[in-house]
Amino acid sequence: MATTDSSVNPSGPDAPDDPGWKAAWPFLVAVVIVVLALGAIGLFHVVRPASERLTDTAKITHAINDYYTAKNSITYDKFRDASCATDQKSATFPSAATFRDAAQRSRDEHGNIVVTDITETAVTGSTATANMHWNYNKNPSNQILPLALVKQGDDWKVCGPKGP
């Protein structure tokens, strides 16, 4: 015999196990806040990308790393792009073949150039200097190389004599 006592299996709008939509409001408010926060962060990155928020010192560090990464990977186009216009126009600036041969010879003999730190960065208008601490991976003796850089447009480029 089936029982129809509503106290055994309550149902209806006043049932104690069904909190209704009132209990979901805190969760929904939290979801809206998270979505708005993520939207604001995304909009901020679109309006002002990370590359535009870098300080000159950070941009200089990136320029030096780009220059020596190009030498390590023997990528002439990236090496040329990381070099200042004055160097590129110089009669002593290497051709692609000369660069490739010299970089390969150096890499075979000494290993890759390892930039361990960049310190004492000083910016004066559109020129800068920095000390690069480096070594070859086959010779871990740390050395310091002073570098000169120039600003071309929004980018910093390595310029002048530059060691390894």
Helix content: 40-55%
N- to C-terminal distance: 95 Å
Radius of gyration: 30 Å
Give the topology string: H per helix, E per strand: HHHHHHEEEE
Oligomer: single chain
Main sheet strand line-up: 1-2-3-4
Major β-sheet profile? 4 strands, antiparallel
- How many helices in DSSP terms? 6
Mean pLDDT figure: 87
Gross geometry: elongated
The proportion of residues in beta strands is 25-35%
Poorly predicted residue ranges: none
Structural class: alpha+beta
User: What's the total number of strands?
Assistant: 4
Structure commentary:
The protein is an alpha+beta fold and 164 residues long. 44% of the residues lie in helices and 25% in strands. It contains six helices and four strands. The protein has a four-stranded antiparallel β-sheet. Helix 3 (56-73) packs antiparallel against helix 4. The protein is elongated, with a radius of gyration of 30 Å.
Can you give keywords for this protein?
4-stranded antiparallel beta sheet, 164 residues, elongated, 4 strands, alpha+beta
List the helices and strands and how they pair.
Layout: H1 25-47, H2 50-53, H3 56-73, H4 76-82, H5 85-89, H6 96-110, E1 113-124, E2 127-136, E3 139-152, E4 155-159
Antiparallel strand pairs: 1-2, 2-3, 3-4
Helix pairs in contact: 3-4
Short description:
This protein has 164 residues and is an alpha+beta fold. 44% of the residues lie in helices and 25% in strands.
